[in-house]
Amino acid sequence: MKFFKHISALLFILFISASFAQEVEFVAKVSKQKLGINERLRIDFVMNQDGDHFTPPDFSMFTVLGGPNQSVSNSWINGVRSYKKTYSYWLAPKKRGVFNIAQAKIEIDDNVYKTTPIRIEVTAAVEIPKDPNDPNYLASQNIHLVAEVSDTKPYLNEAITVVYKLYISHKIAVDNVNEIDTPRFNDFWSQNIDTQNQKIQSGTYNGEDYRYVVYKKAVLYPQKTGRLDIEPLSLDISLRVPTNRRDIFGSVLMSRANKTVSAGRKTINVKPLPEVGKPLDFTGAVGNFTFNVDASKTELDATESLQLKVAVKGNGNLKLFKLPKISLPSSLEVYEPEHNEKVKTNLAGMQGSISDSYTVVPQFKGKYPIPSISFSYFDLKTESYKRLSSDEIVINVLNGPSSVAGTNENNTISGGNKQAVVLNSDLFAFIKTKSSFTEVKQSHFFKTQSFWSLLLLPFLAIPLAIVIRKKKEVRDADVYGNRIRKADKLARKYLKGAKKSLGKKEEFYIALEKALHNYLKAKLHIETNELSKDKITELLLERNVEGEVIKDFNGILENCELARYTPIDIVTMQADYEKASKTISLIDKQAR
After folding, report:
1. Distance CA 225, CA 467 (A)
2. Rounded CA separation 546/563 (Å)
3. What local confidence, expressed as pLDDT, does residue 488 receive?
4. Other CB atoms closer than 10 Å to residue 486's CB: what's the count?
């Protein structure tokens, strides 16, 4: 009997040893390796033995929405122990592309283990089935991004507009909007229209009352025919949605949420310009134009210059075609033209004028006709080609050498009907034949006034260096003053980016908010992504920062959040900048 007990004990010890000697596993698992810009990614780091000093990879290409969440499971199945520890993160991609999630690290029994890098592909926004049980369902039903295209069947090089409107239900409140995927407008010439200081307007969406703001406007000129896609615009929005709970006063409590919305992909069919009636000199002008050729003067002397200007004015693709070239007699010397554009772009397309200005220099006396020049374009109103022609211009050169040889013996005639070459006596007039050089007298530096000054300068600098050093010692001893100067310098450092964006509302407040968060991260050694204003207040009070200063700091953060949909002038921006600079400086002086 004792023999069997010893055998059982031995088997138990061997079993326990085998269970602890199992091979260590540390792996990374993702919910999907290909996702849209508007989807979420879950990544789990799983180990089969407990470890220490877990180090996650850099998630710089993603926004961390949650995590790390830690879970541990222990189980015995058929006498076999199973252990699993998991660190979980929820990520939102910042932009499209192919990215590698790098290795995570963990220490187990004094050994370092690493996961294998994972390749993630982020595509354009995709359609996501709406699940009524999803906590974000309410947000998805009350905020919408819509792309409105002015014309889905334009001609080649005809202007169309795309306007992105963000519709927001009265039930929810928007805190912040970040653009995470911008349309690239491939196969289009494009220009964005300024949408700063846009006011919130009232409208309807699917028959219901909404507020909306025009988020982005762009003018597009298709450069290819056939089916062209306008890529979706995607926004990441921080918002507050109502819950079923109420406070003690009966008011509905709001819950914070993040929602990625996309305008969806739009397709247009671009019609080619008709081949029937297309002029041979057509260079792609589409719109409604006038054409003019002007000379700055029509009477002048030889070797004088005039400006010949070829200009097109009107509404159309002014920057996308070439002006016709001029053809002049060989006796008129012509230089390369200077191109000039005075074009403004709005929702109606390009408007203004373009011109080529030629410098023309006649060499001989006489009258020289500049023949008529024609310009062709496609008129969108009549859907036909039109040709515009300039009038003939005659240049009268009053004085100068004749282009026909006379009987002067200095003229050389080769052949009975050929013209002799006439040399202009002023041809080399620009070359100076007399110099204005003067004799330079030789001088010596030794024992001069400059020599003695440079010799004594180091000795005179010694008292000055002593004075500077004493002032530096006094300055270093001024602890309070140095702290003030350091704080002011720190404020200028963090607010440098915001100052550059003064006058541009969206860029300014994004940069200002980022500067405030970066300052908190550096000062308090924390990550501010998940911090609430109450938590920030608590941490600053622990550092002995005055309540009024904390209130000002939170007030600036609120201004950054609300400025997106509030008309703001440059005076207000300047005031917020100065207030932020003062507040950062005060926090740095007071914090312990």
Report:
1. 77
2. 26
3. 57
4. 13
CA distance 113 to 117: 13
Question: What is residue 415's predicted lDDT score, i.e. its pLDDT?
Answer: 33
Give the residue ranges of DSSP H helices in 329-448. Answer: none
Residues 123, 262 contacting (CB under 8 angstroms): no
Cα-based angle 573, 578, 580 (whole degrees, multiple of 5): 95
Helix (H, G, I), strand (E, B) or coil at 68: strand
**Using CA atoms, how far apart are residues 224 and 412, in angstroms rounded to an integer?**
59
Residue-wise pLDDT for 295-321, tens only, equals 999 999 988 999 999 999 999 999 999
- Could you tell me which residue, 161 or 181, shows the higher pLDDT? 161
Largest Cα–Cα distance in the chain? 147
Lookup: tokens for 417: 């009907």
Task: Count CB neighbours of 289 within 10 A.
Answer: 22
The domain boundary, picked from 397, 417, 441, lies at 397
Same domain flag for 144 and 265: yes
**pLDDT class for 418, splitting at 50, 70, 90?**
very low
Average pLDDT over residues 150-174: 92
Q: What is the CATH number of the domain that holds 346?
A: 2.60.40.740
In a domain, 252, yes or no: yes
Residue indicated by tokens 């201004």: 559
> 52-61, 80-89, 393-402, 448-457: which has the minimum mean pLDDT?
448-457
Alpha-carbon span 16 to 413, nearest angstrom: 119
Q: Which domain holds residue 202?
A: 137-270
49/529 Cα distance (integer angstroms) = 31
User: What pLDDT does 413 receive?
Assistant: 31
Enter the pTM of the model.
0.50
Closest-CA residue to 143 (of 67, 240, 227): 240
Which H/E stretch holds residue 350? strand 349-362
The CA distance from 571 to 305, in Å, is 51
Phi, psi (5° rounding) for residue 318? -60, -30
Rounded to the nearest integer, the mean pLDDT of the chain is 80
